[in-house]
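Possible regression after last week's pipeline update?

I re-ran a chain I had predicted before the update to compare outputs. Posting the input and the new output here so someone can diff against the archived version. Not blocking, just want to make sure nothing changed silently.
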Amino acid sequence: MKIIHLSDVHLTGNGSDLFCGNPQQRFDACIAHVNSRHGDADLCVITGDLTHYGEEQAYIRFKACVEKLVMPTELLLGNHDNRHTFLKQFPDRSTSPGGFVQAVFSIGDHRIVLMDTNEPGTHAGHYCQQRLRWLENALIDGSGQPNLLFMHHHPMPVGVASMDRIGQQDGDALRALLARHSPSIRHMFFGHCHLPLSGSWRGIPFSSIKSLNHPLLPEYDEPTISIADTSPHYAVVFVSDESVVVHHEEFLFDGRRWDGIGTTVAAWSDQPASK
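New output (post-update):
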């Protein structure tokens, strides 16, 4: 199974620039890259901050963009999103009791679990009792299938002070639930940090990726974020019975390549799509 993981698009309603670049242009470039190189993917998941201000026009723009992806695509909410406005433009998206944008479904031998950590009025993540009950039931009803979890906010500290301040704020109950079900959770994917990071928590592997528009630098002890115009990327995830492997593709890179003996080959963009 191949899954594409994107995050933190931060589209604006008027198509304006934001921090490092133009979110619309970068999202379009990313979509074209994904379609060209990974059109055979089984699924694409975008883990939140679809827009920057949560306005209706931004979701209209986002919908026009995301419909260009050639594979099935699932959308999650981040702290910059507005649940009501999102659902107005995407009324067909699955919701759990309480109107949270959550879903669980199977692809092959795995179950995909999509979690809504958005809480209006704060940039921090929250996962209330209603959502916890839904997640508990989703994991209990798994019929022995391994689970791949996707969410916006990281459920555990990641060692970057500015991000941990706005990570999962009521996380004790969520972490306890995840720990109880850790044998059935193969991997957790999240965004929010705008950084490439990976590791494991209580035996559960996890990974995150850069923002498509404005990545951060890992200022580990600083209380404020540090935005930097490093090359954004998306993740290509290969899932098999034996492994979960996460690759990062820098979709804006258009430089030269060299073979193993130092010969210039071609610009990366001239290469055929991977299979």
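Follow-up from reviewer: compared with the archived run. Helices lie at 23-38, 56-66, 83-89, 129-140, 161-164, 171-180. Marking as no regression found.
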